[in-house]
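**Protein fold record**
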Amino acid sequence: MSEMITADLVDLDLSAETKEAAARALAERMAALGRVTDLAGFLADVATREAQMPTGLDGGIGIPHCRSAHVSEPTLAFGRSAAGIDFGAADGPADLVFLIAAPAGADDAHLTILSALARQLMNAEFTAALRSAADTATAAALIRGDVTPQQAAAAQTEAAPPSGEAASGSAQTSPADDAAPAEAGAPVEAPVPSEAPAPKDTTGPVTAGPTPEHPFRVVAVTSCPTGIAHTYMAAESLENAGREAGVELVVETQGSAGFTRLDPALIAAADGVILAHDVPVRDKDRFAGKPTVDVGVKAGINRPGELIAEVRQKAARGETTAPAAAGTPVERTGEPGEGYGTKLRKWLMSGVSYMVPFVAAGGLLIAIGFALGGYKVNKAPSVMDHFVWTQTDSWAALMFQIGGVAFAFLVPVLAGYIAYGIADRPGLVPGFVGGSIALTINAGFLGGLAAGLISGAVVTAIQRVRIPRALRGIMPVVVIPLISSAVVGFLMFVVIGKPIATAQKGMTDWLSGLSGANAVLLGALLGLMMCFDLGGPVNKVAYTFATAGIAVSDPSDSAMKIMAAVMAAGMVPPLAMALATTVRGRLFTETERENGKAAWVLGASFISEGAIPFAAADPLRVIPSAMAGGALTGALSMAFGATLRAPHGGVFVVPLIGNPFLYLIAVAAGVCASTGLVVALKTLRGSAPGAPGGEREKGEHGQSARAGSADREQPVAA
């Protein structure tokens, strides 16, 4: 690990109290050496990685890390904290903090070295030596692999003053204290040297020695979002546990430096499979039909022995995964035993999730066009024929026309990705064709839904037909797209297209005719749906219903009222939770109060998911309160006649809203109603655990800290 870490990158008296402060302190050392070019940008990348998954590990270790364009060369900084810093580990704060910085285009050699460090952290001797290191040079040499823990301990013993005075550095140790870690860790292997090619660990099994019969065989895969630290730490932990359990265990590390696939013969001979990952396992079908334990990567680090025992138990019971089949992306991510109702919901959500970015981009561009050029901008000539750089009207027309092109993709994308969810990539062509036909015949979103489902079903039926081996190569490229597109086109043009178009027109006419009490009731219903599952399927149905109405060049006034009501109601839950944590903080845990600060921004931006942490911790109080406020806001928005042309944006598109003052009053009324309800319901329960004045703070500090940690790890409804 030469040049990656020097004594200047080591802080043996890290005084930071939070993980953000710790990352900044270590990053400043990197920046001082010119290895980080933009401190703020690098820290933002570290925070983004930390938000994906906490980087604290059992045993007092924190490993914040990221790949960043603001890193000039792979660098490692180390800090040792006397008080400990919370990095989200289940067993408490970390006293050893490693900040790993890899360039966005780091080469395999450097990533191999970083992975070697990750493996060393699983060595008890290595971490004990770092805790007792008396000076920064020794700590850096240990991490680089220039000295072994035993050599470092011996050097410190020789250098220790005979009078027993404190040695130089931040740690005060004696010869006996220095020797203890080595004695206690005698059976543990020496740390992996920096030259060891960590990713190349799939060349042979890890064995515990000969046995009368062949030992239990396990193949494993580890992976994490960045593929630098957790991936290799989990691999090392599993290999060590395999040795102790007398199990042949081979690990495939799917890291940033790429990966070497396990030998198919090893997989075929394996008695069980362990998948420890936080990103999708590549080529997962290789392990189909085997007893499998599928967990997060941290489980591979913290409880490898349990995972090995669990896979052995599954093998003994004959519990295996389904054999490899032509599963679709949605089916592969589903749970065993799911019914067609659940799968149908996932197929539809697959289409909606791919459609939403087109809705947001196209809708906002169209709204900007109207804001700049007025409501006659839709009559402007094509910017290909007339565009003046200095005229606002020309820019308005450009924004409007780009947004219109983006909107034209909505129905085809919806249909295409519904078909993709059912039949994988072969479903894309007929899905897009069917969606485009739905637009051509004015069947709208209903036609897109039907086209997507039909396309997926047709492709699935074709795939089940037995064909000669010689023709299989051209099936996905020629045969399936040709036949499926022809069948879907025939059905959409000749059979079901006209009835669906009639139904779409009827729904549009009904919406256009809504007024008075009917409109208010619809607003309340949409508000309830938006706040029921906070970004889930019911929320998405209401949102899709609203965006379908404005996804035309000239939406009706009723459609824009519905869009306004939906966005207003969706802003209520996070804003209400933010307000509640502000006015009655003692009713919420420390973590919830921190989430409340972020909820202000999320709610103002129309991101309903900002209330999910509160709903997960206390669903019986939060969800009904949010629904009541959302229903009130939706009803008031419709009653006030507020309109909205943009499908997203929150308060940032208020200038584009019709009757903006009354619209904001509707939002405020719902927020106050939800806040009042949730405060009242939580007051009946009393102060939250860990909140100021709460019962748990009356006890010892240690007990309170453990309770707070448990709350962070696993929110439970009170």
